[in-house]
Design a protein that fits this description.
Two copies of one chain form a homodimer. The first copy, chain A, has about 200 residues and is of the alpha+beta class. The first copy, chain A, has a single domain, classed as Glutaredoxin (3-Layer(aba) Sandwich), CATH 3.40.30. The first copy, chain A, is about 50% helix and about 10% strand. The first copy, chain A, contains nine helices and four strands; from the N terminus they run βαβαααααααββα. The first copy, chain A, has helices at about 15-30, 40-45, 55, 60-75, 90-100, 110-120, 130-140, 155-170, 190-195; strands at about 5-10, 35-40, 175-180, 180-185. A four-stranded mixed β-sheet of chain A has the order 2-1-3-4, sandwiched between helices. In chain A, α5 (about 90-100) packs across α8 (about 155-170). Chain A is globular, with a radius of gyration of 16 Å. At the A-B interface, α4 and β4 of A face α4 and β4 of B.
Chain lengths: ~200, ~200
């Protein structure tokens, strides 16, 4: 019997980058079906009174996060550069990802998401730039023209709906993983979330 | 070749409870010497503008933490009750712990610390109460009279010094683990910190 898990991520989130590159292999090994769900942390943070990343608001925590990311990325053989500015504006990337994830082939959407994270945290590219997103679509084997879907009213509405669902699921950070209403927060809870999903 | 690690904890900290019960066995297996270092999160939080635990300030994060703690504690076969009030005032416990950790036998200090965490998070006892601390000392095979050391000026000064060292180490939460200036934060970084300490 196989379980299912939803992977909630914001393209601006550092630890979401790690999960994006870890989840495929781990989920396959565990026989868990993963739904990739881009969302925006901005409104979540705003509801807590924050106008930017808590890693910018709390300098000690921010300095630690970058060092921790260095160590974790090195352990995973992932490149790491600090995006400038940090956090990146991830609105356009999230919208294009929604379009990519409903396109064929099925693995194109996740491949696009990984390409965006790699462009941002591996190469320091600006993910609010439509040209970056078009390159990521091409890299994922999808049509570059999908980048224009960022301006599609149906996609904008869909992303607002995702935000409402995130609020219903009581999500407060990224990455998060949900399994039948059970919430797991943080890249370091990925294994536990997959195990939970596999309980069937 | 064996390494060393410092385990920084606040008795009021939920995830420190988990680490206190995990670190002994893991460190022994890895051949790492552990220094138990109680400190106070209060001044650290105050420096970030918080007057209580961030788990109280941010309700979604707090609700998640308790559910996460339930799952983790269950996985470790540790009992879990929510202290009332939360967080507990951990000043007196930290002072007595400093006294216990410099007493003989050497394993009495860590045993006292575990007993305090167990009283607080396993039984819901008030750890600001000198009677609770005396019981914990007895349980650890130490002299109940050590509880009075909470009022010893030398201990008070020592605890302030610990706070200054925590600031130098850029500690912003608990539990934390330090290895030669390298900082690891959170119970879920314990294994990585031990691995780092073992690099020799």
């Amino acid at each position: 019997m196989s379980g299912a898990l939803t992977f909630w991520f914001d393209f601006a989130s550092t630890y979401s980058y790690l999960s994006a590159f870890r989840i495929g292999g781990l989920a396959r090994a565990a026989g868990i079906r993963v739904t990739w769900q881009p969302f925006l942390l901005g409104p979540v943070f705003a509801a807590q009174g924050w106008t930017t990343s808590p890693f910018n608001i709390y300098p000690l925590k921010g300095a630690y996060m970058w060092r921790d990311m260095e160590r974790r990325a090195e352990g995973l053989n992932l490149p790491l550069v600090r995006p400038d500015p940090f956090p990146q504006n991830s609105l356009r990337a999230a919208r294009v990802a929604l379009a990519a994830l409903e396109s064929e082939p099925e693995d194109g959407g996740p491949a696009f998401c990984r390409a965006v994270f790699a462009a941002e945290f591996g190469q320091g590219r600006d993910i609010s730039d439509p040209a970056t997103l078009a390159d990521c679509l091409a890299e994922a084997g999808l049509d570059r023209a999908l980048a224009a879907r960022a301006d599609d009213p149906a996609i904008k509405t869909a992303l607002r709906g995702v935000g409402e669902e995130a609020a219903r699921q009581k999500i407060f950070g990224a990455p998060s993983f949900t399994v039948d209403g059970e919430l797991f927060w943080g890249d370091d809870r990925l294994e536990q979330a997959l195990e939970w999903a596999g309980r069937g």
